[in-house]
Amino acid sequence: MVDWVSLSVPFAYLGILVGSLATFSSLYRKRKAARSLSLEPWFPTHLQRDIYLSLLHLEPEPGKDKPPAVPDGVLKAALLQRATEDIKRILEVRNAKQALSNLLQRGSVGDDLWQRFLRAEREVEAELRDVVEEANALQANWGQTIFQSANEMHHNATLRARLSEIQAKGKRDREWWDQEKAAIQSSFMKELGEDGKESVKPAADKIGSDEDAVLVEGGGPASSGASTGSKGAGKKRKGKK
Q1: Which string of b and e fits 165-195 if b means at least 16 CB within 10 Å?
Q2: Among residues 125, 115, 136, 146, which one has the least CA distance to residue 42?
Q3: Among residues 45, 88, 121, 140, which is most buried (max CB within 10 A)?
Q4: What mean pLDDT, rounded, does the chain reach?
Q5: pLDDT digits (tens, 9 = 90+) for 108-130
């Protein structure tokens, strides 16, 4: 006779074990999902997406049943700006993924940061699909080329920002050089002035000593007057004879 009680014990043990594992897995996943939602987002608020959605879902004005119609050109421009912001985020995710993965393997960063990055990557992928769908809804087959246009706009904006930075740096460098040049000129002129004063003093002393030597050698003004008087007296004596 089969002992069903002894056979039911292992099956009950297996059932309890499987149920406890399933409960633990479910609780762990819920806790992990709640923890990932509580983490700080990798990217800031997507302002361009919010603007596009606000234009797309305008509420009617008070006293009117229908919302105001938004031109397709405005919607397309808003969607293109949204795609341009997505291009920036795609490039940031691609550039940071390899470096962050290496840091995670070395243990330099925690798992929370990696979870934040993975969530941001999933959000970017979902955002790209949404933009393609919206572009195809506004214009047929526009979803195939919208990101190409957005990439060109992003590249142009990057070049203009770089050019503005170079021009601002050149202006600062020019102002610095003008100040340095003025300081160098002023110090050079001061040195020239001091050297000129020092050279003028010995020259003046030398001129004065030369004049004194000439007066001494010539007998001075008195000797010249005496000689003139003696010559006149001699002439008078000759006239008396």
Answers
A1: eeeeeeeeeeeeeeeeeeeeeeeeeeeeeee
A2: 115
A3: 121
A4: 78
A5: 877 888 888 888 999 999 999 99
83-99 pLDDT, tens per residue? 999 999 999 999 988 88
Cα separation, 95 vs 109, in Å, equals 17
Please work out, in degrees rounded to the nearest 5, the angle formed at the alpha carbon of residue 158 by the alpha carbons of 153 and 162.
150
Structural contact between residues 85 and 48, judged by C-beta atoms closer than 8 angstroms: yes
143 secondary structure, DSSP code: G
Nearest CA to 67 out of 52, 76, 55 is that of: 55
Report d(CA 54, CA 76) in Å as an integer: 13
Cα of 28 vs its chain's centroid, Å: 43
Q: Which helix (H) or strand (E) holds 69?
A: none
Question: Token pair of 167, please?
Answer: 């021009």
